């Protein structure tokens, strides 16, 4: 029998002696009895006070209040929905702790057909006392042995069994299969378990047992199993109440009201753990001396005070303490106690339930008392029944007050005048005690009159419910495995990244030597970064990013910029070259008019962010369009000439195009103006690319062995020779095939803003087709190209509002999602952007190592000027790039400078340098 201590009463021989004379007068004894039983009377006002105080504690805990520590824990259980009824499969259920010194193993078959139930097969095992109080490993090994013993008797395979673990103790859950025990209750006190993940302890024990391959996929509290196991026709139960050896309740709370969860929608099942409720103000007046004695002698004095007034483990003991008290005052059994009456735990719940059962009759009570070594008289029998009734009535009333608090909370959080709710009840006190449930229901109606409550006895103690949760967990675990399999190719390890770095180095060397390489390493004729002596007014154009800008750049001791953004309609970007350049000149003229520059012929620097073979600073042959541009009659043409022809077509406009630069070069120059160590330009925006200052001696095709030349790597095309195919996934292939330049810009299509959203969309489509997402419902919207913008990744991955952001975005896309869906979409975005940032980091590492080796340095300190919407807006991209560079180029101290003014300023500075050089050669 579970242990609960024995002092507070006279002990030993003298306690067992029967008083010869001095038994109390009948009047005194009824007073004594009255006093005793009166202590167990709880008034409606006291019940309402307990109801109110418990509700207060519940809301304090939901808000995450830390001090004073709320009296109840309100533990989220990761059960986010009541059963769909579609769950199916065979599951093993292990129940530990619900029914005291026994554990139960069940084999549950879910048919997936609502209302069609297959009777579970089960077996109960008594847990030896020394196991309940011994080492935790011993307890879990015992459980694993019982599992095998049960399964040995079942016609089942030894492989691929899925188990739901009903563990009826207060636990912090961090997932459906991760749960840390907070503290033991109810006669258990195994060492080495509190603070540990009980699922892992069970998995380890099953492993040690080695008989069956069992996957523990879910752990649930017994109240959750009780709630999930019951149905009221179409309406599922939303409250699970257990009164067995211990007592507790769970219910479906609004997720937004559970502070610890980052959720703003849907519901989550919360285990209240009301057993620990103790509010001296509310409970103090109803606690009797017997409660204090019981608590004092229990395994966990001061803890679970509320449970010790209601739980079946304690009701018998309370009755015993009262009977022993009355006996030693001579009121009962002629003042002759028996050893059993004086020994703790000798009166069980079953005894109390029977003795109270009006159908049991006096004879049965007599028999039970005789079994306890007592010689009851008829008056004793009647008084014992009154004591049992007093103890159990109070227990049921207190339980009702607590349940009424939960119902008030539900009513409040659902903003409902009248609450319709079904409460599943489980546990032997509910099942076996003759009057407990009727008193409970009657008192609830008294305390929560505006709630229409249906009480649904759980059919199998929650086994079915645990199997339901296990089925959900199994489905989610299967989904998680499919998600991991799908995302695994995106998780690049050190060796893979180092291989990309090495591949890029090789391609750089070949490109510089003018050999065929996916990296064209284009000389830019920019030989120096600005030295601060530049002066003058310059016009600049910035084409190729998200926006087309025209800028007026005034360079004095500092740089002032006036700019205007103009749109480039897709029809123009993919129209004729003439149309495109005429549109550019229109914008320039409009800008000049607005800035009062009309008729002035300022030197102009043209940031043209596409691969150009430059023949000089103001001559650049477009090699091929990228990033959704595809204007005809431009590839193979000198872009500066195309611009000059457009200027000519527009009479009365004078423009002096001095330089054409790539946006990477413009960005490097712009940042170089502030930090002379800036010798690399990096763009991660619509497209991606990098440039850097290379030793002229290494640049084939450009005369000269000394000095430097800025090289536009055009790394977007890296891998177009297949060197990245090992890393490319089917999703990359889908994006590439759907692009206007299939087979081209492979590196760019794994990194840049124009493509990441599409990669994510294809992965979401794939996961939906596997039934992992959106319940397998493909929506038209998600099949729409470019519907999932890359900026969504930045929003979704923002640390602050992750899941809410995901919901908002996906609901705007008309996608019905569950919280699990939201989490998975977040993980997909993280995997895609992480790969992009790591690949980008591997590229930068290749460049800085090239410069370090160029200069034969042990250590290199260098800065990188960076621009591009993805790099600037994504919450983690820049730090992931920097981390990858540190990992792959540890001898380089790399500083990333975000360009504030874009590369238009850089183009103007290149123009200014050109003008200064031209000036100096003229004088
Ligand atoms: C800035 C620069 C542009 C560059 C762009 C890339 O705006 O001024 O020259 O092309 O960044 O980023 P984006 O995200 O706009 O493609
Ligand atoms: C435990 C709860 C459990 C209840 C009923 C309490 O002692 O703390 O987790 O639900 O007993 O078994
Ligand atoms: C272009 C590069 C440009 C990069 C960033 C790529 O698509 O080929 O020239 O630097 O995008 O805008």
From TrEMBL:
Coiled-coil stretches: none
Keywords: Allosteric enzyme, ATP-binding, Glycolysis, Kinase, Nucleotide-binding, Repeat, Transferase
Keyword Aminoacyl-tRNA synthetase: no
Region (Disordered): 1-30
Signal peptide stretch: none
EC number: 2.7.1.1
Domain Hexokinase N-terminal: 33-231, 483-673
Pathway this chain belongs to: Carbohydrate metabolism; hexose metabolism; Carbohydrate degradation; glycolysis; D-glyceraldehyde 3-phosphate and glycerone phosphate from D-glucose: step 1/4
GO MF, any single term: D-glucose binding
Domain of life: Eukaryota
GO cellular component: cytosol; mitochondrion
Gene Ontology biological process terms in this record: glucose metabolic process; glycolytic process; intracellular glucose homeostasis
Catalytic activity of the protein: a D-hexose + ATP = a D-hexose 6-phosphate + ADP + H(+); D-glucose + ATP = D-glucose 6-phosphate + ADP + H(+); D-fructose + ATP = D-fructose 6-phosphate + ADP + H(+)
The keyword Repeat appears for this protein: yes
Hexokinase C-terminal domain: residues covered: 239-472, 679-913
Pfam families: Hexokinase_1, Hexokinase_2
Principal EC category: transferase
Protein function: Catalyzes the phosphorylation of hexose, such as D-glucose and D-fructose, to hexose 6-phosphate (D-glucose 6-phosphate and D-fructose 6-phosphate, respectively). Mediates the initial step of glycolysis by catalyzing phosphorylation of D-glucose to D-glucose 6-phosphate.
PANTHER family: HEXOKINASE, HEXOKINASE-3
Family to which the UniProt record says this protein belongs: Belongs to the hexokinase family.
Protein name: Hexokinase-3
Species assigned in the record: Saimiri boliviensis boliviensis (Bolivian squirrel monkey)
Upper classification of the organism: Eukaryota, Metazoa, Chordata, Craniata, Vertebrata
């Amino acid at each position: 029998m579970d242990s609960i201590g024995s002092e507070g009463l006279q002990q030993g021989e003298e306690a067992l002696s029967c008083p010869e004379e001095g038994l109390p007068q009948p009047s005194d004894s009824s007073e004594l009895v009255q006093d005793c039983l009166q202590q167990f009377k709880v008034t409606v006002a006291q019940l309402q006070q307990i109801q109110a105080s418990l509700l207060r504690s519940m809301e304090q805990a939901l808000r995450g209040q830390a001090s004073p520590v709320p009296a109840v824990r309100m533990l989220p259980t990761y059960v986010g929905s009541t059963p769909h009824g579609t769950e199916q499969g065979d599951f093993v259920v292990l129940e530990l702790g619900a029914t005291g010194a026994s554990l139960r193993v069940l084999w549950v078959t879910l048919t997936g057909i609502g209302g069609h139930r297959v009777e579970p097969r089960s077996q109960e095992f008594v847990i030896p006392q020394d196991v309940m109080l011994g080492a935790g490993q011993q307890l879990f090994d015992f459980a694993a042995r019982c599992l095998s013993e049960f399964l040995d008797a079942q016609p089942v395979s030894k492989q691929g069994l899925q188990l739901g673990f009903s563990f009826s103790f207060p636990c912090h859950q961090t997932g459906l299969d991760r749960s840390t025990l907070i503290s033991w209750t109810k006669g258990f006190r195994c060492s080495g378990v509190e603070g540990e993940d009980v699922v892992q302890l069970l998995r380890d024990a099953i492993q040690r047992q080695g008989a069956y391959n069992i996957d523990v996929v879910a752990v649930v509290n017994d109240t959750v199993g009780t709630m999930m196991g019951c149905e009221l026709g179409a309406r599922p139960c939303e409250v699970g109440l257990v009164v067995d050896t211990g007592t507790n309740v769970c219910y479906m709370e609004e997720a937004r009201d559970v502070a610890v969860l980052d959720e703003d929608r849907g519901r989550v099942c919360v285990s209240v753990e009301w057993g620990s409720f103790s509010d001296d103000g509310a409970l103090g007046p109803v606690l009797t001396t017997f409660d204090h004695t019981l608590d004092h002698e229990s395994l966990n004095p001061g803890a679970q005070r509320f449970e010790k007034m209601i739980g079946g483990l304690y009701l018998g003991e309370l009755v015993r303490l009262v009977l022993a008290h009355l006996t030693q005052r001579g009121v009962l059994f002629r003042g002759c106690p028996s050893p059993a009456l004086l020994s703790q735990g000798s009166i069980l719940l079953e005894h109390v339930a029977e003795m109270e059962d009006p159908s049991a009759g006096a004879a049965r009570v007599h028999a039970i008392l005789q079994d306890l070594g007592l010689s009851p008289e008829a008056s004793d029998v009647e008084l014992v029944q009154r004591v049992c009734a007093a103890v159990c009535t109070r227990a049921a009333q207190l339980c009702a007050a607590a349940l009424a608090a939960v119902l008030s909370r539900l009513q409040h959080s659902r903003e409902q005048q009248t609450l319709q709710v079904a409460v599943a009840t489980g546990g032997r006190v509910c099942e076996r005690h003759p009057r407990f449930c009727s008193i409970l229901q009657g008192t609830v109606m008294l305390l929560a009159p505006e709630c229409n409550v249906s009480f649904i006895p759980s059919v199998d103690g929650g086994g079915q419910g645990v199997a339901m949760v296990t089925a959900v967990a199994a489905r989610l675990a299967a989904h998680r495995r499919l998600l991991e399999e799908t995302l695994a190719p995106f998780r690049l390890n050190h060796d893979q990244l180092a291989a990309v770095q090495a591949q890029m180095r090789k391609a750089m060397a070949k490109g510089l030597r003018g050999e065929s390489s996916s990296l064209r390493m284009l000389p830019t004729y920019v030989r120096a970064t600005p030295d601060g002596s530049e002066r003058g007014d310059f016009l600049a154009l910035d084409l190729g990013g998200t926006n087309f800008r025209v800028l007026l750049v005034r360079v004095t001791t500092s740089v002032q910029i006036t700019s205007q953004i103009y749109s480039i309609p897709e029809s123009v970007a993919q129209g004729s070259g003439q149309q495109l350049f005429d549109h550019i000149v229109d914008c320039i003229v409009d800008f000049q008019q607005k800035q009062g520059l009309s008729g002035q012929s300022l030197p102009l620097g043209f940031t043209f962010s596409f691969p150009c073979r430059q023949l000089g600073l103001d001559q650049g042959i477009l090699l091929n369009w990228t990033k959704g541009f595809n204007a005809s009659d431009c590839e193979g043409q000198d872009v500066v000439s195309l611009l000059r022809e457009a200027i000519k077509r527009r009479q009365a406009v004078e423009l002096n195009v001095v330089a054409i630069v790539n946006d990477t070069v413009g960005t490097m120059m712009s940042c170089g103006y502030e930090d002379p160590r800036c010798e690399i330009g990096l763009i991660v925006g619509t497209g991606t690319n990098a440039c850097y200052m290379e030793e002229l001696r290494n640049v084939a095709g450009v005369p000269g062995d000394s000095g430097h030349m800025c090289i536009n790597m055009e790394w977007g095309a890296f891998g177009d020779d297949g060197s990245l195919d090992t890393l490319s996934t089917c999703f990359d292939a889908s994006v590439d095939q759907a692009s206007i330049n299939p087979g081209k810009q492979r590196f760019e299509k794994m990194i840049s803003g124009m493509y990441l959203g599409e990669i994510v969309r294809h992965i979401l489509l794939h996961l939906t087709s596997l039934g992992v997402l959106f319940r397998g419902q493909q929506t038209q919207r998600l099949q729409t190209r470019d519907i999932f913008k890359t900026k969504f990744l930045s929003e979704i991955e923002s640390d602050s509002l992750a899941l809410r952001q995901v919901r908002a975005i996906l609901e705007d896309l008309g996608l019905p999602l569950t919280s699990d869906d939201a989490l998975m979409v977040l993980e997909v975005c993280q995997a895609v952007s992480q790969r992009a940032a790591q690949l980008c980091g591997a590229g930068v590492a290749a460049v800085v190592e090239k410069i370090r080796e160029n200069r034969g340095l042990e250590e290199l300190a260098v800065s990188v000027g960076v621009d591009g919407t993805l790099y600037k807006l994504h919450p983690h991209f820049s730090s992931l790039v920097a981390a990858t560079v540190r990992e792959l180029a540890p001898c380089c101290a790399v500083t990333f400078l975000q360009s504030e003014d874009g590369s238009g300023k850089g183009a103007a500075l290149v123009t200014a340098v050109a003008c200064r050089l031209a000036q100096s050669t003229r004088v």
